[in-house]
């Protein structure tokens, strides 16, 4: 905002210079010319001193009036410029808020962004986002911004609730505090209802500590626009939350069904997911990639659900589970991006795996991680269908297959975790 303030100031300076030049050319020059003509041609012909003084007085009056008009005009221009600068600043803050609010991941994220923006728009001291579950129910403080905001809320909770309630009952922004900017209780606040589908979701309350004066209508209007954006962000965050909840629980149900279907593999998807998460984190995956890796690992054998139990132990038919899993996930929009990870989790780094015979970097990194974790869990878990290898024998087997079956970078991350004690024998028996 410093840049825009500077731009506004340069614009104001230019306008000021233009006004002064116009004044100089339009008023000063003609006045000087008039004075010159009067002094040269009019006064000598008049003869009488009183008449001459009269003329001088007229010219001086004109000069004073012109200067007065110029100063009034200049003051008006400066006030207008201040207002335009303020509007521009608020518009930029709102645009900024709109961009940030559209990326809010949850309600508290949206509330924090709303409070921060309100704080800047109104130049308040503290901002609070209050929500309630249903009309008439008690407010809950979702977010507070500003120095000592939590303490102020504790101290003045009832007054702040009263301002918020007033805004909600009137269905419009309310300003608490008169000419001096403060109410009888010493609080200078403005509250704006946050619109919801059926009833308001809550209220945004901004408090001024050392009130410079009453809240300006333009500031309160900006808060009205801000809560409109916040309302969309809250609904979007709720929808995302519901989607995540659905996604997690449906995955759990499928993984339980898969475990029951495989029988001998109890807990395998969860163990593979735990190992994969740790390797992904060690390789520097961000939260989004870790989440996709986690769900990919949980669902990596989902294709087995399409295979009859009698076919699962048949090596050739069992291989089709990668293709079957890929097709199952491809049809579900929320899981579509997991489909390639699941499809290629049995590829080998040297290209001798299945189903496509991909090699090296051509295999999705998620598949390379899950491939190692699945193989290691199958080798070492007593819950696997084979007699388990000891922990050390399993590690030796991983090292032996590095560069052929397993990606050396993934193995390196895995071994680092083992050396650090972040992966130990308890993990394979923990689920
Ligand atoms: Fe598999």
What tags apply to this protein structure?
431 residues, alpha+beta, Beta-Lactamase, Hypothetical protein af1432, 3 domains, five-stranded antiparallel beta sheet, 15 helices, disordered N terminus, binds fe (ii) ion
Query: In which range does the helix fraction lie?
Result: 55-70%
Distance between the termini: 53 Å
**Unreliable stretches:** 1-5
CATH architectural name of the largest domain = Orthogonal Bundle
Write down the overall mean pLDDT: 84
What is the radius of gyration computed over CA atoms, rounded to a whole number of angstroms? 37 Å
Strand order of the largest sheet: 2-1-5-4-3
Q: How many DSSP E strands?
A: 5
**The CATH homologous superfamily of the largest domain:** Hypothetical protein af1432
Q: What proportion of the residues form beta strands (DSSP E)?
A: 5-15%
How many helical stretches? 15
Sequence of secondary-structure elements: HHHEEHEEEHHHHHHHHHHH
Q: Biggest β-sheet: count, sense, barrel?
A: 5 strands, antiparallel
CATH topology of the largest domain: Hypothetical protein af1432
Set down the secondary structure blueprint.
Layout: H1 2-46, H2 49-102, H3 107-121, E1 126-131, E2 140-145, H4 149-170, E3 174-176, E4 188-194, E5 202-208, H5 217-262, H6 268-282, H7 287-298, H8 309-312, H9 315-319, H10 321-330, H11 339-343, H12 365-380, H13 391-400, H14 408-420, H15 425-429
Antiparallel strand pairs: 1-2, 1-5, 3-4, 4-5
The structure holds fe (ii) ion.
